[in-house]
Amino acid sequence: MLLRNWTGAATVPSHGLYPHQWSWDSAFIAIGLRHLSPLRAQRELETLLSAQWGDGRIPHIVFNPSVPLGAYFPSPDFWRSSTAGADAGAPRGVETSGIVQPPVHALAAWLVHQSDPALSRRRGFLARVYPRLAAWHRYLTEHRDLGGHGLAAIVHPWEPGMDNSPCWDAPLERVEPAAPGSFRRADLDHGAPDDRPTDLDYGRYVRLAADYRDGGYRDGGGAVVPGEARGRAHAFAVEDPGVNALLIASEHALTGIATSLGADPAPHRQRARRLTKALVERLWEPEAGQFLCRDLVGDPGDAAGGRLIPERSAAGLLPLLAPGLPREVTSALLRTVRGDHFGLGTRVRLLPSYDLRGHAFDPYRYWRGPAWFNVNWLLERGLRQHGETASADALRASALSAAASSGFAEYLDPYTGRARGTRDFGWTAALALDLLAAAEHAPAPAPDRASMSEKGQKR
Fold first, then answer.
1. Which one of 81, 206, 341, 362 has the lowest number of neighbouring Cβ atoms within 10 Å?
2. pTM of the full predicted structure?
3. CA distance 371 to 369
4. Which residues, including other chains, have CB under 8 Å from residue 173's CB and lie 6 or more apart?
């Protein structure tokens, strides 16, 4: 399936619903491809990075010019990146979107390098991608620090990857939707309406993207005085814990890349520490036992710069990926993963994308409850990092079983495991490959001493 989705330079998530190259999809796909072809995995990331903008942003879509404009919306003629984004350094030779997706790319690059270090060194892979990845992180920590407190912010619900999360409902209420006749939803040609965002939500997505485009894709720029949130210049600006957790994990990956190249890793370590501190200070909610999103477009008199959004998303558990969290935070997160709101290992076998007890929970609709394979891959990694080996092993087994039985579905009903969305989905297949490879190389469990003693006595 990954072979069928390969275009010669990159892998599309699916030929029908997603016929172009997507940013974090390609990072996850490269992580899986490294087990089949480290060369192709490197090229996957190189192709994506070749469309990087001058200000450092990695666009969330790189458009394939051979795909008809009507096959996907918003299409290149909507984004108009090469003209509307000229002041921000958008490339002239390729059309892209103007928004971004979560920064998992440095982690992917480091894992791809480790799969075949000799090939990576021969091709100069790390030497070529490192400056681009460092520029990408600078963009997020400088241009996107809209709250002025050290965290990267998103300016569109598509940016954190969890497009239709209930976390965005309240911030979106203040956005006037685009007129219904001003756009055509190509996604409904490939997906069931009950699985996809509503027309009202989609109209608001279109409005935000059009306003960002018409503003030249500017983020605000300039120095920020703490408490004066640049986010209020946007109709939608949110600090998301999942985005920032992946940024922290990727900063740690950059320390490995820098060390491998003989560069100074200290700036990346320092940035990771600052981000981790800001993440806990800004987004940790002890009563919820997890991290929450912060809406930056709040009351102008709010000295904290916005308000926490009281919705429980799986994004609030992804900081388990971040080394250096306070022990009490890690312990609370692990309790929440297994508790009533997410029920991993008790009520469900794969982590749902949203609170099982939440008022907006829907087991079918895009990011409002279904289980996604990339989220579960990230959680499996976080569990393992914190010594939760048995839980990580169980999650890995559940994910592999679900991927195979669902036809490598885009996402699943968390209760029944029924496939939802498109099938033969790129990152589902790729991350299943990665989990399978990890399972094959996992050390055998240590023999139980009591049972060995019994066997010895029987002899």
1. 362
2. 0.93
3. 7
4. none
